[in-house]
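Worked Example 4.2. Read the sequence first, then its C-alpha cells.
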Amino acid sequence: MSDVIAVIGAGEMGAGIGKRLTERGARVLTSLKGRGGASAARAQAAGMADVADAELVTQAGMILSVVPPGEAVGVAQRLKPELARAPHAPIYIDFNAVAPETAEQIGTVLAGTGCRYVDGGIIGGPPAGTYSPNLYVSGEAATEAMRLGRLGLNLRLVEGPIGAASALKMSYAGITKGFTAIGTAMMLGSMRAGSGEALRRELAESQPQLAAWLIRQVPRMFPKAYRWVAEMEEIAEFLGKDRAGHDMYVAIARLYERIAAGVDHTSADAEQELALLRAFCAEPPETLSKAS
C-alpha cells in the first residue's frame, strides 16, 4: 500500500509530484473528475492513472490533495464517504495553500472516516530534474508521511499540530507573493505617472538585486495570478484579528484578480495595466544600469 499513492489535482504542481513519484517506482492514482483536457494531458504525461474515487481510496496508502486553495475543503468533502468505507486507514495529506483555520476545517470534515490526517504546505516550484520543492508536514500522523522522502520528495517535519505547516506556508507566501504585489502596484503607479523609466534606472543603480528580482518575478506572476487570488484571501484569514494585515491581503487578492482579468482579456483596463507592467519589465536592470 505504501507505494500506491493518490494525487488529487493534476495542475503543474500535482502532476510534477505525480511524475516524481512514478519515476521512483510508485503507482500513482488520480481522479480527473470535473477536470479539463489540460489536466488529463498532464496526468497522462506524468504516468498517473485516472480512476474513480472509490477505487482511488481503496487502493492508495496515501492521498495527497494538491488543488487550488478554494477547492481544498470540497475535495475532502467529496472523498469523505469513500474514506469512511475504506477497508484500511490511508494517510490524507492536504498540501494546499490554506489558512490554519481551513486546515482545521478539513480535519473536521475527515473526522470519523478512519483516515490519518496530515497538514501540509509546499514551498517552491514543481519537481523537475533533481529539484524538489520543500514539502512541510505537521500533525500527529506527520511522521508517517515522511516516508515520501524515499520517493524523491523533500519532506520536512514541522513540530506542531494540524495548522502548523499551513501557517508556515501562509507566512512564506505572504512575504514573497506580497512583495511581488507591492512591486506590481508601484510599477503601475510609476508608469501611470510617467516616471517608470526613472524608477527602473534608480532601482538598477541603488537596489540591483531587488530590481533583478522584481523584473524576473512580476512577469512570472501573470499566468499564476488567478490562482493567487484565493491564496491571498487565505492569508487574510490567517492574519485574523490583525485588521491592518487582513485588509492588506484582501486588497492584494483584488490586485491579482485584476491582473488575471488582463491575462484572460476580460477587462480592457486590466489589459492596459498588464501592458504597462510588461513595458516596465522589458529591459533587464543590468542594461539600464549600464545605460545610466
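Now turn to a second chain, presented in exactly the same format:
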Amino acid sequence: MQVAIVGIGLIGGSLALELRRSGLATELIGVEANPDHAQKAVQKKLVDRICCLDEAIDKVDLIVLAVPVNVILHLLPTVLDRVDRQVVIEVGSTKEKILQAVKQHPRRGRLVATHPMAGTEYSGPEAAIPQLFHGKNVVICDLDDSDPDAVEQVKNIYETIGSRIIYMDSASHDLHAAYVSHISHITSFALALTVLEKEKEEKAIFDLASGGFASTVRLAKSSPDTWIPIFQQNRHNVLDVLYEHIHQLKRIKQMLIDEDYEGFYKLIQEANAIRKIIH
C-alpha cells in the first residue's frame, strides 16, 4: 500500500515504523503541520517524504489521522469529502463526538474508527518506537457504519503488527476510556502539581523519589496539546469518573482524620481486587 500518515508523532510515527517493518507499506507519505516535526520524521525515516494533505489523499490507498482529537474533528469531514476508494483510519482517544460529526457523510463507510490502547508519555517524531502496538488491544468503534472491505483491511493491518482487536460502540468506548485512561492522566497531573508545590518547601522529596513515584507521575509528562482536547470532547464521562474519584479520596481522608485504620485496612483490601482485572 501507499500510506499517508497525518500527524507524525508517537502513534503516527510508531505505526509508520510498523507498516514499513511488516512490508504492508510500499511508500509512506507524511502530512505534518509542524515543520520541525516534518524534518525529523524524514530524518528518522519514519516517512519517505512530506507533502500537503490534498496531494497525499490523491496518491495513497490508506490515510491515517494521528493528530489530536480536536484536529481530527476538524479534518475528518474534509478528508472524507476527497476520498473515493481509499480507506481512512482515525486513531483518536475519543470517539462519540468525532463519529457523530460524520454520521451522515456519504463516504462514512470508508472510515474505520480505531483506538490503539498503546502509548507513552512522550510526543513528537522522536517518541516513535518499534512494536508499540504489539500485544496491545485496538478498539474498533461503530463497526456497522464502516464498509466491510475497509474493516477487513484495517483488521489485517493491526493483526499483522501484533495487536488484538476488540469492538465497541462509540458511547461505550468513551465511558470506559474515561475510567481506564483519562482519569489516570488527571490523577497524575494532580499528583505532580501537589508534589511540585510541596517541593518548594522540602527539597528532599525528590531525593527520596523511587520507582513507585516515577511510575505514578509518569503520565504527568504528557502533552496538554493532546490531552486538553480529549478532556473537552469526553467532558461528561471524565466528570462522572472524577466525582467518584474525589468521593474515594474523601473517604480515605476522613478515615485518617478519624484514625480509623481498621476501616482503611479493609478499604485497601477492597482495592486489591484490581489484581483480578490487571495482572
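Notes for the reader: The domain at 173-276 is CATH 1.10.3660.10 (6-phosphogluconate dehydrogenase C-terminal fold). The longest strand covers residues 111-116.
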